[in-house]
Amino acid sequence: MVFWSASKEGKTPAQWEQEGYLLIDLGGQFDHHHANQESGRRTECVATLVAKHLGVENHPALKKLLAWAKRDDLEGKGTISPDALDRAFGLSGIIMSLNREYAANPTRTLNILLEIIHAHVREEFRRQVEFPQEWQTLQKTGKGKLLNLKQGNAELRAAILESDNTSLPGFLRAAEDVDLIVQRRSSGHTNIITKQLRSIDLKPVVAAIRRAEAQATSVGLNLEQAEWEKPGRVEALPMWFYDDAANTLQNGGVSPQDIPPTRLSLDQIVTILNTEIPKGVIGSLKRKKEQGQ
Description:
Blueprint: H1 13-18, H2 32-39, H3 46-54, H4 63-75, H5 84-89, H6 91-101, H7 106-140, E1 144-151, E2 154-162, H8 168-175, E3 180-184, E4 190-194, H9 203-216, H10 225-228, E5 232-234, E6 237-243, E7 248-250, H11 266-276, H12 284-290
Parallel strand pairs: 2-3
Antiparallel strand pairs: 1-2, 3-4, 5-6, 6-7
């Protein structure tokens, strides 16, 4: 790959192709100025022209990337946010900084950016293709299901899944608009994750699960209600950690290491969820944080 600011020696794009060079945005079929002039509309950038030629313009993993390239190229608005940090660390700002830093070595800039773009496209492929397919398979095989819960006047959408894919909860919260997820892993470790914006009150669930765990492990505990539902860990029940900052109840989290799995079955945990979620006060955690408590 070589970098030119203009086609050299007055040759036509066809002549360059005969010599083994494919021009990008310097004339020929991949020149967006020429394409837009021909159509009479300012609708194409070089990225969309190449994508259409390859037949991947509608691939879900490329949707955001192509939209960004088009907006940045045609409108100069790769980063819309007026925030100075967003603009400095947005992809358009980073590209500008790299071009200035390595003006004499554009290949270095390209190699850096290809790593970033590859990571984005791979993640989009997971979110747009792999995760939806995996969730559908879990539902078909009975290892994934949706529940409707209620806390106060709030209707909550919950997902129960048996999977070792720790990225699925994030997908379900974003793409499936799920408010609460119970994930059971093959090791038996079980985590409860919530959508923080909903400020679901997990304290009744935390207390009930700890009580059931104490009974299942024959740990005799005589605690006040506040102790059963407190953030962090109860010393005699190290397998459960209540993170009130993230509003999750973790039995090992993403990396359990030496944390033992719960002795409770998934059905027991779901029964507790159905029984205890309605007892909570929706939004109480958010109000507590706003009051600095």
